[in-house]
Amino acid sequence: MSFDISTKQDPCTEIYFYVLNYVDYQESWLGKSIDKGTNKEIYWYGLTPDGSQSYNFYSLSQFINAKVFHGKNIKEIWDLIFITSIDGGNIEEIFSFYMR
Length: 100
Fold this sequence. Notes:
- The chain is an alpha+beta fold.
- It contains three helices and five strands, in the order ββββααβα.
- It has one domain.
- A five-stranded antiparallel β-sheet has the order 4-3-2-1-5.
- The radius of gyration is 13 Å and the shape is globular.
């Protein structure tokens, strides 16, 4: 989430993931983009395909500490998260780009 998205042509980073042992979170997204209204970074979760668990945050701290996973935050369940795609690409290929 520390990657500067303002350098991208489409200023958005999306990570597709699932959470082991959480039936609700098998097709989930998290990301960072630019809020067009304020022109500031926004961090977000889209945890269910139907959009019923979508959350926006205006600081990384709020995003990380939000208890949106059945009363837990992402730090508390990190060992259960499996990333399947970053920006629609293969993890191994795209990860090196973000780690520069």
